[in-house]
Amino acid sequence: MNVISYVKREDILFHRVSEGYYRGEMLPGAMEGIITNKCRIEAGAQVWPACYADRVTALFIFKGTGRIKSGSQVYEITERCLFCPDFDHEKYLIETDTEMEYLELSQRMSEEDWKHHEMYHIVLPWFHTHSNWHLYIEGFRASELKSYAVLHQYYVSRMSLGEVTGPGEARLEPHTHPELYQWFYGLPGTDPFLFKAQDEEVEVREGDWICIPNEVAHIVSPMKSGDYIDYVWFEVVVPGKEMCPYFY
Ligand SMILES: [Fe+2]
What we know:
about 50% strand
């Protein structure tokens, strides 16, 4: 059985949700309780995305401009940004000025997840823009390749998300994450890059989405030194393997 599951950009099947609003599920069933969608909204549209009472959700918006209106708040979308709605407590509207694309990532909340959520979570809704993302160091990377924390672990349940961008060197050592499922998305403008897991290898291009389960040794690497890569990673902790300091 393959350890890497992936869908190429051209194979993501979109369906029309409402006027000017399209959504396609990517890699359904890759992990129990997780749904990953790619969404596209035409320029000048107004849409009310579905809100979920039992799912924590993060929107990673990587293309387009416009705004999100949630309650009395207006969040202007002028650069890459992340939006986490407040479950179904407050509906939100997305208005686009130009064509918009984003990932809608969600995790079903178990009884255990709700207990942890009560102990620790970021106040929702939460809007976070590229200018404010946190640059951090990963010792195994060349320094020109920048790692940004976008959605910190346990801000919203077991999900976290970040971006890696820059010219890189093809010299990375494989590593494993005992507790994390991981997904990767090639952002607009990225050069193709290599994803290796165990003895499998996939060339990831802009718009592709790939996933590996926890405990699989892997490397993300530019195809050749100096290639410019830009991808977002999304991770979800396997239930029971959480390391949140607020647990009891
Ligand atoms: Fe990793």
